[in-house]
Amino acid sequence: MKVLAAALTLILSLSLAEGVMVCYYGSWAVYRQGDGKFDVEDIDPGICTHIVFGFAGLGTDNKIKVLDPWNELCDNYGKCAFDRFTALKHKNTNLQALLAVGGWNEGSQKYSQMAADATKRQTFITSTVEMLKEHNFDGLDLDWEYPTQRGGAPEDKVNFVTLMQELKVALHAEGLLLTVAVSAGKETFEAAYDIPAIAQEVDLINLMSYDLHGAWEDYTHHQSGLYMYPEDTGDNIYLNQDYAVNAWINGGMPSTKIALGVPLYGRCWSLDNEAEHGYYAPASQPGPSGPFTNSPGFMGYNEICDNIQTDGWTVEVAIGANEPHAYHMPTSRIWCSYDDAASVAIKAAYAKEKNLAGMMVWSIETDDFKGKCHSREFHLIKTMVEAFSGSEITPPPTDPTTTPDPNATTLSPHTTPNTPPPDGVCQAPGINPDPNNCHHYWLCSQNASGGYDATEEPCAPNTLFNTMNYICDWDYVVCAIDGACPNDCP
């Protein structure tokens, strides 16, 4: 046990020497079209210290659950994304590959029920360790959004710590890391987390210091402002990264265990009046969808920067802010708050000054990963790494030997047969929408008899299946898409 603990300390210290760069990967990006499609091999393994696969879920049997078996597993002629993801470590010997469980679409209630029962917790933990080891992951990122919230119970605050304690023991016994994605919203983190107790259990927290504002509000604002905007009043004075960082540190989390989250996307509105286009401008509707992400009120940085270059969007940085916003008049009246290279560099310098562990991004597939807007690919991530470390990006270390590693994970060759024809609810392998019901979707996998096996997957409360983006999304977002969910939208 002492040897494994020392190994984990070494792993983290190697990363902390120049700062961690935690890169989440939203695996559903593989279903996007055109230049937005992003698969495992599109990840640059040399620019991140930790890559996190999003997401696994929690099954009704309290075991960790693969959410898209056809994409993520090799079984039933699947695409082996888990194994391909962890195999990226062969290209960077210092890279750590983690599996995230949870996420917004998973909801909170089932995690609350699992954490409240010792037997259910053990079932979850045992199955998690087995899955991590089977696919050569280096640890777990727990992304329960959020204890005590969204159908959770007041007891979650205590039960979350108990779950963390038991996870830490089980994971560290196998030399695996435990990281946690946590809220930056004052109302949420004060209710959800016993910070000093969590600090004793985690190797790192990923502070989700974004989505602080968005189209669920009827006015414009920046979703990830570093500091309070001068005109903020009421609870809005707490909705900034600096407040969240200080609150977590003052609450008992060591600064060196905090990775500061930066969004590689923007939150967008449709302005009510084109003459008002600053902060707090009236905006009662989400902005239109981007061509790749297909989610109203949301655009990837790759979509925003392309619009700025090709469609003449106006870019401004408000007085008293560090981050840009962009708008386009008069046809679309779209207004997006986002981060660019200048603002992420400022945030990285801030993180360095605060002695934080480093940076985190959600998510790697919406950076300018093709280098269409800049002279290099993944410009925002690379800018953060350089600003935090004080040195330019260099190629990752490689294994100098040519002798095959007997412990290395290799993918077993398998033959993908012809895709079976549509059969009932299954039109193709993988995720399939239900054209008559957006409250669920179907997971379809090929079977040995040449047909499909289908599993029904419900969407969490207040979400509907986004048939353009192949995820469960906010109901108001899905219903803003023309023709989406005619039976489930008003």
Textual characterization of the structure:
One of its GO terms (cellular component) is extracellular region. GO terms for molecular function: chitin binding; chitinase activity. InterPro entries: Chitin-bd_dom, Chitin-bd_dom_sf, Chitinase_II/V-like_cat, Chitinase_insertion_sf, GH, Glyco_hydro18_cat, Glyco_hydro_18_chit_AS, Glycosyl_Hydrlase_18. This is Chitinase. With 490 residues, this protein is α/β, with parallel strands linked by helices. Helix content is 27%, strand content 21%. The protein has an 8-stranded parallel barrel, surrounded by 7 helices. Strands 9, 10, 11, 12, 13 and 14 form a 6-stranded antiparallel beta sheet that branches. α5 runs parallel beside α6 and α11 runs parallel beside α12. The radius of gyration is 22 Å and the shape is globular.
Give the topology.
Elements: H1 2-16, E1 20-26, E2 50-58, E3 64-66, H2 69-72, H3 81-86, E4 96-102, H4 109-115, H5 118-134, E5 139-143, H6 156-173, E6 177-183, H7 186-192, H8 195-199, E7 204-208, H9 241-251, E8 258-263, E9 265-270, E10 285-286, E11 298-300, H10 301-311, E12 314-317, E13 324-328, E14 334-337, H11 341-353, E15 358-362, H12 379-389, E16 430-433, E17 440-446, E18 452-458, E19 463-466, E20 471-474, H13 475-479
Signal peptide: 1-19
Domain GH18: 19-391
Domain Chitin-binding type-2: 423-481
Shape: globular
Q: State the separation between the terminal residues, measured CA to CA.
A: 57 Å
- The portion of residues assigned to helices is 25-40%
User: Can you name the CATH architecture of the largest domain?
Assistant: Alpha-Beta Barrel
How confident overall, as mean pLDDT? 90
Please give the number of β-strands.
20
